[in-house]
């Protein structure tokens, strides 16, 4: 932030100087400060006092400092009191401004204690200590909000500065969750708007905690209602606090200024406006103009002064004539369109007619009772009538003569200031011929508005010969004053143009309008005055008794050029009231003072009753307030006074309970507007002072709305550059100079705020603040109000600010993370851990900038990119330092690259930028070195693994890599260039029940797949190097898989050679494992050996993939052929045993003879069936082993097809060799069973009919059928149920 010390000191000095000058009198010695007078007398008093011991210099210095402090406090108190007098007059009788109702409502600010409570409530929710039910997504959102926002130092600073409200907290949370909810998957029947509403409701519940919202304070504090429309009493109380006025001082001033008297306040305004006109004339006459840029503005300045006064006069004239008092409300003012009466020419331009001053009075007549009624029998009915002469007649209720009481009220309206009231008493006539009731008495009254209003007894006039000589009636007459009648009564009067005879007349002071008053004389029963005199231009004052005039005891007169009128009254108090009323009406600047001798005593020597206003004035004078009350506002420099008022008001506003951001409350705006209009404070001065105070507070750390600064600056700029909406106005040299100073200071402030945008506008608060600051900066950089600033110039300034911001943000971030000391002292591992943490913080900072501040910089996205690049360039220094401390061939830094690269590659402005390229250049050697070592290690593991391979099947893990979170290769504990042999992790055992390849092959495939996943997860941003890495890994995979296949083929052949060819041969598991290795190699080659690049790479990849596929297929064929050959060798061994039964051999003859001989004595078992059963069992069991252990169905079917065909071919060859021989019965039975069972078993294993019924099989089938028929004919015993015919009765 900017250092505010120099500006504050300068501001205080200027303000102190202004305070010394504010009460310097132009021509009146009354405005000299009393403290100065006392100080000037004190040395004389002390000079005559001898001191025995001279005080030390330090004591004298302390006394002088204490004296200066007291003088300063006294001067400040006097200024505040005088300012308060002017202010309360604006509140008491406003006629220019009104309290605005369209201002934005300000939110209650948060304090430190509330922030701590909020943190505790959210921490309680995260700890599960609340009853609020929430899902994991909401919990994560609250945790992120708590860790990132609530615990942020920037939020604590914003709360300390008073610029944060509960609404700000809620809006930040809402913005965060909107982003989160949008990323959630769609849920049927549940809209995302519903989720948002639910989350916000839960947030509100957490935020409120256990507060009882129903508990409201009985009386809201003044600061709590400051956002509302305030009454006069609330405004008085507010400005007492603002100006430091005590309650008793306010009461003294309130009474002495007669603030509750609307007439006095209107008269005060008229006197002030007249004084301002005279001041304008004096300035024009003496040519004491402010310094202007041109002479033409001097004439314009006088015109402005007069037009402003005329406007105020029009506003005052537009107000209705009102009684005022407590019922007086702030009214919406209307501008008068016809203000010819305000012209400064002849005062007699407008003449009043008698019809203009017609008044309207309300009369209330209350008849209470009649006393002394004796002439009427007690049971007779009596009643009263009342009438105002010339009006209607009213009658009371009837009453008995013994008790003539009524209490009846009659209401009348009349235009006669001196009405005649007749009240009559009647009794009902009992005579038959009587037409009217009998009148018993009457009374005639002549009330005036000054008459008493309490009930009184009046003697009634009775008819002649009436017995009721002492008849009286008790009644009350109340005659209300109309609002436009200011005073009335009987006076002796003598004038030159009117009232030319010295005579006692009933006079009424009538207010026709705010600026027009007339003194009228009335006769009884007349609505129009007999004579009238306008008071315009007259001056009223007390006078001595006039010689030669009989009547009247105390005198006063009204004088103007060419006319003089003398008035006399019989009562001193009445004279004082008349003079006060006429003093208000004339608008004269001179205030009449009653003669002292008259105030003290009257001619009788007794004390007179002094008016209440005089009592209040004397009381105020006693407390030293008279000077402030009677001070002429025209003799004060209101620009200095207003600056003090506005400064104290702003300080009060910034310290109230609302987060105002510098905006005044409606009531404060109203009072300041009224003060400026009433006392002629120039708008430019007002806004320059406002800007100064706002900037002082902003430099001190307060949160000020830049929009408010923009409004005031725009007003000043339009004024200085002559583009005001109301036309060209005068511009003083001082205003122009101050504006240039303000403009430069504001530019520095704005640049500072943009440089510290993360701390001046944390998390985008106040909303739109940064955007408004940039807009204001563009306005400030304009040369004048009409010429826009070139975009490049604004961009240049913003670029410079963001360059500084990058350094500031990174410096504060490293201080927060305490990176500097760690990087200097920590171990390499600790350095890497710290730089990883710092990288995470840097990413978080830039993401927050993007989320909360990017919209403000939307016009210059390249500048934000440059800011981020500079930010990363500072990080690069620490990054290089940390990586340089790492040991050679250390791979723990790869997660750091992944984190940074994943952020940078997804940012369109930072992808392949300076820092991104630097990051790539730093890690390219590491990646290449790592892949080189991994390739060497994998090759060695292939070589050593297959040499020591036991071919025991292991559980498969390669196919689960996409679904199981395996550790990345860089995180494995590897001893490069040698890698330990593969062993499946313990957590993999329960995932898969099926066996797969060997340990060496699984180790190979897993390493190849993990290496490719690792390189893929790097997401290398440069396409060429990324393609190079991918191509290299694919070619490596092809080479490694090729080596694996070849070694498996060699091992397979070696294993088969060691296996016997007997029927007891069962296929070993390790042979099946070899098949599975090839199956896996084929599957893995599809994933590991195919490139995803362009056409050229795809073509090259296809060549390598086709090559490895061909190799695998060829190896499969060879291995199947070798295995089938082994199976066929077993069949051939069995056929060799059957060959011993061939016809014509010695063994066949011996065997036939022996069987025939033995069959005569015992039952001989059937030869050859055990051989068939043994072979069939051999086939079936090996089929089951193949089906169970080999994982690829396709290759099992190929094996079965080839095995079946080879078996049939071997049998067919064996039979072909014996075409000329008849098969032995045992040979025939064995072959039939073998052929049929083989056919059926392979059919069950899925061998197709086309393969089963091949030509070889047909040949065998035909030969065995012929042999079966031959045996059936030649041997009566036959084949004992064994036949080539299809039958379901044969045993399996």
- Please identify the structural class as seen in this structure: alpha+beta
Strand count: 16
Q: Approximately how much beta-strand content do the residues carry?
A: 5-15%
Mean pLDDT: 81
Radius of gyration based on Cα positions:
58 Å
Overall form: elongated
Distance between the termini: 98 Å
The parts where pLDDT drops under 50 for at least 5 residues are: 1-52, 212-220, 323-349, 597-608, 957-994, 1287-1292
What's the total helix number?
A: 39
Would you kindly provide a written description of the structure presented here, covering whatever features stand out?
By secondary structure, the chain is an alpha+beta fold. The protein is 54% helix and 9% strand. The chain is built from 39 helices and 16 strands. A 7-stranded antiparallel β-sheet has the order 13-12-11-10-16-15-14, covered by helices on one side. Strands 2, 3, 4, 6 and 7 form a 5-stranded antiparallel β-sheet that branches. The chain has a 4-stranded antiparallel β-sheet with strand order 5-1-9-8, with no helix packed on it. The longest helix has 44 residues, at 1095-1138. The radius of gyration is 58 Å and the shape is elongated. The two termini are 98 Å apart. Residues 1-52, 212-220, 323-349, 597-608, 957-994 and 1287-1292 have low confidence and may be disordered.
Write a brief structural summary:
With 1292 residues, this protein is α+β, with helices and mostly antiparallel strands.
